[in-house]
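A.,

Following up on our hallway conversation. Structure tokens first:
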């Protein structure tokens, strides 16, 4: 996957505030960050510092109160909902903290429908199942490919959500706490797989409380709750 300068990310002067009664609750205050295409970025910081909010804004799942998010020359904060949906499907692989699988589909079917929704051509889907095998092997999911989510543990569902985001070979991977509540072996497996995707050309942006995640990163951004005035 060659570097794509049109997907260099520039987050400019982002502010996000919510109304809490009569008060404005400021979650992000004038946050800026430039991310060259193909880098691994870890966003750390205490709970409440705005990590999830920043990732939701960077992926177009939430609008900032002010500021811009550029992918190349495209400011996604100005896109319509339909345009944003198309942009995400074409370029992004996203895992939120609430990511769930489709309950009536097996793990394998959940992964394959992701390719269908994201319009991955049949001749590119899974690279002849090689990508599918790589991801499921690395994440310890191979034996679960025919299981329904109801027969999977919370950690397995978390890893399956990560797999679902990766099988489309996204140019930009954005994940909120992808290693939360995983054991040490699976934490490292997830981080190694994300590093592999980055080395193959994807931009990877994650939030994490794991100190180990920083060892895999090219860029570390620490959000400070007190500085943000939240």
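Then the amino acids I'd put at each of the 230 positions:
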């Amino acid at each position: 996957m060659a570097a794509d300068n049109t997907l260099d990310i520039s987050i400019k002067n982002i502010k996000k505030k919510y109304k809490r009664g009569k008060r404005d609750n400021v979650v992000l205050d004038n946050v800026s960050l430039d991310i060259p295409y193909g880098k691994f970025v870890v966003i750390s910081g205490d709970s409440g510092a705005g990590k999830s909010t920043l990732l939701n804004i960077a992926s177009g799942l939430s609008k900032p109160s002010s500021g811009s998010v550029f992918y190349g020359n495209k400011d996604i904060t100005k896109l319509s909902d339909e345009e944003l949906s198309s942009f995400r499907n074409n370029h992004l692989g996203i895992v939120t903290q609430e990511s769930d699988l489709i309950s009536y589909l097996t793990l394998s079917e959940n992964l394959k429908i992701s390719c269908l929704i994201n319009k991955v051509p049949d001749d590119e889907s899974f690279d002849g199942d090689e990508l599918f095998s790589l991801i499921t092997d690395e994440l310890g999911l191979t034996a679960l490919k025919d299981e329904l989510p109801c027969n999977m543990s919370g950690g397995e569902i978390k890893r399956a959500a990560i797999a679902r985001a990766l099988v489309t070979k996204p140019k930009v991977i954005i994940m909120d706490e992808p290693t939360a509540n995983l054991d040490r072996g699976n934490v490292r497996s997830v981080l190694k797989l994300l590093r592999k995707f980055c080395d193959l050309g994807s931009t990877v942006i994650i939030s994490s409380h794991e100190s180990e995640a920083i060892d895999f990163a090219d860029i570390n951004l620490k959000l400070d709750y007190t500085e943000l005035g939240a």
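Residues 98 and 181 are 13 Å apart (CA to CA). Curious whether your intuition agrees with the design.

B.
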